[in-house]
Amino acid sequence: MGLLIGRSRCTIHLFSMVGLTKPQHLLKRFLEDRADNDEPPPTYREICARLGYKSTKAAADLVDALKRKGLVTIEKGRARGIRLVRKSVGIPVLGRVAAGLPGEPFAESDQHLALDPVFCGIRDRSKAFALRVVGDSMIGRHVFDGDIVLLEHHAIPKNGDLVAALIDNESTIKTFVHRGGKVWLRAENPCYPDLIPVLDMQVQGVGRAVIRVLSK
C-alpha cells in the first residue's frame, strides 16, 4: 500500500509485516476477539455472517488458508472445531533498529513482551510489534540506546510522529517530518543529519510507547 504525500519526489509506503490477505486478517482477528472474550470458536455460518459471505464453502476455504499458514487447527467432526494457534503471548520484538545512521533491515526474533498493546492505544493486537533501539540519534526525544519502542504498523504517520522506516532500503528510527510538500526523517541529536529519501521510504510502524528497563 502506497501513500503519496504532496509533491514530494518520493513515495511513502506503509510497509506490511504480515503475510495475510485482508480476508485472512479479518478472520484471524475475529477468532482472536472471540478467544479474548472467552467465547467458543465460531461456526462456518457465523464466519459468513461476520465477513459477509453467502456460502459456507467460502468460509471453509478461508479457514483452510489459515490452517496452511499454521495459524489455526481444525478438529474434525465438531461444529466449533476451529482452534486458534497462539504460538506466543504478547508483542513480538522483531529485532534491533538503528537510532543513528541507517543500517540493515531488522530481522525477526523469538522474543515477546508480556504486554497488552491496547494499553498503549493499539486496538488491533495483530498490528503491534516492538524494536530494540541501537544508537543515540533520538536522545533529544528521550529515546535511548537499549530502549524498546512499541510500534503500530499500517498506521498512517503524521508530522512529528516517531517512526521506524526503511529509507532507500536501510532501516532506522527517527521523527517523521512532512512540511511544504516534502517528507524526510529527522534525528533528535544535532550530531546526526536529516535523512532525505532519494528513491522511497517505507514506514514500518508508528511509535506508540517507549519501554526502558532500569538497571538494578
Description:
With 216 residues, this protein is an alpha+beta fold. The protein contains three helices and twelve strands; from the N terminus they run ββαααββββββββββ. The strands form two sheets. Strands 1, 2, 5, 6, 7, 8, 9, 10, 11 and 12 form a ten-stranded mixed beta sheet that branches. Strands 3-4 form a two-stranded antiparallel ribbon. The longest helix has 15 residues.
What is the tally of beta strands? 12
The oligomerization state is single chain
Tally the helices: what do you get?
A: 3
Radius of gyration: 20 Å
Shape: elongated
> What structural class should be given to the helix and strand makeup?
alpha+beta
- Approximate helicity band: 10-25%
- Major beta sheet, specifics? 10 strands, mixed
**Total discrete domains:** 2
Percent of residues in β-strands: 25-35%
SSE ordering: EEHHHEEEEEEEEEE
CATH class categorisation of the largest domain? Mainly Beta
User: Which blocks of ≥5 consecutive residues have pLDDT under 50?
Assistant: 1-18
Average pLDDT figure: 82
Question: Which helices and strands occur, and which strands form pairs?
Answer:
Elements: E1 2-3, E2 11-14, H1 22-36, H2 44-51, H3 56-68, E3 72-74, E4 82-84, E5 91-98, E6 111-113, E7 128-134, E8 148-152, E9 162-167, E10 170-179, E11 182-186, E12 200-211
Parallel strand pairs: 2-12, 5-7
Antiparallel strand pairs: 1-2, 3-4, 5-6, 7-8, 8-12, 9-10, 9-12, 10-11
Helix pairs in contact: 1-3, 2-3
Give the key terms.
single chain; 216 residues; alpha+beta; Arc Repressor Mutant, subunit A; Umud Fragment, subunit A; 2 domains; 10-stranded mixed beta sheet; two-stranded antiparallel ribbon; 17% helix; 31% strand
